[in-house]
Task: inverse folding
């Protein structure tokens, strides 16, 4: 019998470390895909053997953990397959799309190594039941992913990576203080600082210290999760990182931070402070949606627009959990739907960036003709991300709305609908213009240089050829469209029918959290 | 309480006072080298406190923890940072966002605030020294202040480290509850953070020919 939990964590960590020392590109890329496949396989095994524990209860995989780990594993696998095509086309140095200086990439070994380390640290966050260990793991995810953001060695990505590193490290340091406050709050009890341990002796916790601890942990992990107004690192990091990394940051990393907040919330609920912590989650959720709405309307950079959309959806998830009841179910379902959809959109944005060499929402036009497959998926992704039926996000957003109405939170429901509408309108203009509009002016597209990311098959092109390529459909690599297509199909299926195992997993997870 | 214990308690309080002085020095220093040394000294002082406060019964765990933390904060971090400063060629924090005299005045204000807050917090009786919690809060505030009031990327890293020191000090007050594994994990993270930040400072210097973090402002809406 393989010790599943240690294997899930150690396999990517060891493979990631190994990748720094491997020489051949082929071996490294094989590793890049093989590890996420093995990770998914181990996870399937854990699914049937649950609940599992290790390290004296410090690590455990129950329904909640398997739900989040499942998302992470699927997304990482999709991203790894996409990354193989991406890395193959990133071999040539070329002028960047924005500032006209030559830059090269970080060594590919750094990408592969950090990618796998990132998977390992995220797995550790999800499996950790001990607040101290979870803190260590969350900080480790920041450190593993910062070099990924700076993979394109140019000034923009450097600035983004620095802000990410500093803001998140400071935020997470505040969470560490919150951890110590939890220790103080539990000083009259004797159990370990695990979620289950604290929930068990919730009545012994000092409410004043627990409230203060929740505030600090909410600020700390909320920074990482991208809840406004603590989200300032997020649009920069998501827009400057390679698209495949943005997909993982948005779809997997933000969820890890959300899970950390969920666990503190569970302790508060058990201690009878659910109204306090839930109220704060609802407030921050609405503020996040408001911020996102304000910045999505008129956004000039489509990757930043997707980043603000992540702020919005994290806000929706926080809001749902804060409201509890049916909305709690909606919130967990929403994280699944959002992760799949956002990862799909970010991968597609990589294809667009590769073909157009431009992140501007106004200069990218006529995608349905230039990149037929990507274009169709991009339009589908728009309907999915804005919560239009028949996609999964409609179901989860509707469930959260129902939860708000059931609980007679009229103001929350109204604001929620207003923000969703504003965001729908704001995104509609951008997505539809990019997909349908006619090409304007020759200089707008077809900048000089090789593809920035996967998507086109050819190597470096002259301006003339590139402009030509922008007129007629380009050949799209299967590695560039299959992963987003599969993710998109997933969201579509979840919109039509929620499989019973998923429903049961979410319900069990909610019972474990005590927020049902 | 016998004389030996009183002496040790006095020693802990002396160490804590030195931590406060280190904070004030950090707020008033313009040379990056001095700032690095002050933060390192602060780390060493805090690393010594558990050795002293545990009195006669020094476990292997306490000694090991203190040794690792002192080596990292007193030797490894300053070495990494001094290297980064030398590479960047900037020795001073010229024209900080908040000047040195106002910084010191702010420091006085923050100290008063921390003492007031520390006095109001309902602390459980396990606390090592009544001074430790207010000083920890003060150090955290100074760290945060350094991050926003200084321009150089390296000074921001130092602010982060000061903050980490403050949180460490807060943890010291309730040391017995924090498991060894977590303690080591936190130190490992701090080490990796300084390592990655050091590399980034080096890259910022190479890319922009300066390490002024406030001039990294190309990305915005």
Result:
């Amino acid at each position: 019998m393989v010790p599943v939990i240690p294997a899930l964590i150690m396999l990517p960590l060891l493979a990631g470390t190994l990748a720094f020392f491997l020489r051949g590109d082929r071996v490294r890329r094989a590793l890049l895909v093989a590890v996420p496949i093995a990770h998914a396989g181990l996870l399937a095994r854990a699914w049937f053997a649950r609940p599992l524990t290790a390290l004296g209860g410090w690590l455990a995989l129950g329904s909640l953990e398997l739900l989040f780990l499942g998302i992470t594993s699927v997304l990482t696998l999709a991203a790894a397959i996409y990354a193989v095509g991406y890395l193959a086309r990133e071999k040539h140095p070329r002028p960047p799309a924005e500032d006209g200086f030559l830059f090269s990439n970080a060594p590919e070994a750094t990408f592969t190594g950090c990618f796998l380390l990132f998977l390992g640290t995220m797995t550790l966050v999800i499996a950790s039941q001990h607040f101290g260990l979870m803190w260590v793991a969350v900080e480790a995810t920041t450190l593993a992913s910062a070099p990924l953001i700076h993979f394109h060695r140019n000034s923009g990505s450097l600035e983004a990576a620095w802000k990410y590193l500093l803001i998140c490290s400071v935020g997470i340091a505040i969470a560490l203080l919150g951890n110590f406050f939890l220790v103080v709050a539990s000083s009259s009890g004797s159990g370990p600082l695990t979620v289950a341990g604290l929930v068990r002796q919730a009545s012994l916790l000092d409410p004043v210290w627990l409230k203060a601890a929740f505030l600090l942990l909410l600020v700390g992990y909320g920074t990482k999760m991208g809840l406004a107004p603590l989200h300032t690192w997020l649009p920069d990091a998501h827009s400057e990182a390679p698209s495949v990394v943005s997909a993982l940051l948005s779809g997997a990393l933000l969820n890890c931070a959300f899970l950390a907040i969920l666990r503190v919330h569970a302790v508060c609920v058990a201690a009878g402070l659910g109204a306090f912590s839930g109220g704060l989650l609802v407030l921050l959720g609405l503020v996040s949606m408001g911020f996102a709405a304000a910045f999505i309307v008129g956004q000039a950079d489509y990757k930043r627009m997707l980043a603000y959309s992540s702020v919005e959806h994290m806000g929706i998830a926080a809001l749902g959990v804060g409201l509890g009841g049916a909305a709690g179910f909606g919130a967990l379902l929403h994280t699944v739907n959002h992760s799949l959809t956002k990862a799909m959109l970010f991968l597609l944005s990589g294809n667009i960036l590769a073909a157009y060499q431009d992140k501007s929402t106004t200069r990218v036009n006529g995608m349905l003709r230039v990149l037929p497959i990507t274009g169709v998926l991009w339009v589908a992704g728009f309907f999915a991300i804005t919560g239009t039926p028949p996609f999964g996000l409609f179901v989860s957003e509707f469930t959260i709305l129902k939860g708000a109405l059931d609980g007679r939170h009229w103001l929350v429901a109204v604001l929620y609908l207003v923000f969703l509408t504003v965001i729908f309108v704001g995104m509609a203009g951008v997505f539809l213009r990019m997909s349908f509009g006619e090409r304007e002016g020759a200089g707008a597209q077809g900048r000089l240089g090789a593809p920035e990311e996967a998507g086109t098959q050819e190597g470096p092109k002259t301006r003339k050829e590139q402009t030509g390529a922008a007129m007629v459909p380009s050949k799209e690599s299967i590695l560039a469209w299959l992963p987003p297509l599969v993710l998109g199909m997933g969201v579509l299926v979840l919109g039509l029918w929620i499989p019973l195992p998923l429903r049961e997993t979410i319900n069990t997870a909610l019972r474990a959290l005590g927020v049902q | 309480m016998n004389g030996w214990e009183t002496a040790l308690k006095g020693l802990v309080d002396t160490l804590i006072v030195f931590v406060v002085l280190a904070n004030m020095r950090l707020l008033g220093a313009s040379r990056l080298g001095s700032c690095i040394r002050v933060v390192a000294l602060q780390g060493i002082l805090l690393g010594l406190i558990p050795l002293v406060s545990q009195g006669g019964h020094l476990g292997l765990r306490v000694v090991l923890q203190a040794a690792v933390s002192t080596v990292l904060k007193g030797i490894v971090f300053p070495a990494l940072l001094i290297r980064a400063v030398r590479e960047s060629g900037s020795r001073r924090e010229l024209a900080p966002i908040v000047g040195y005299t106002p910084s010191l005045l702010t420091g006085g204000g923050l100290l008063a605030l921390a003492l007031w807050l520390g006095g109001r917090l309902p602390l459980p009786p396990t606390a090592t020294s009544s001074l430790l919690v207010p000083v920890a809060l003060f150090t955290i505030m100074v760290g945060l202040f350094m991050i926003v009031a200084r321009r150089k990327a390296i000074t921001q890293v130092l602010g982060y480290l000061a903050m980490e020191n403050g949180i460490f000090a807060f943890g010291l007050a309730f040391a017995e509850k924090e498991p060894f594994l977590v303690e080591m994990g936190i130190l490992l993270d701090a080490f990796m953070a300084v390592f990655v930040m050091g590399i980034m400072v080096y890259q910022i210097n190479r890319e922009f020919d300066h390490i002024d973090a406030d001039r990294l402002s190309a990305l915005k809406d």
Q: What stands out?
A: The helical segments of chain B are 3-28, 32-53, 60-88, 100-120, 132-149, 153-172, 180-208.
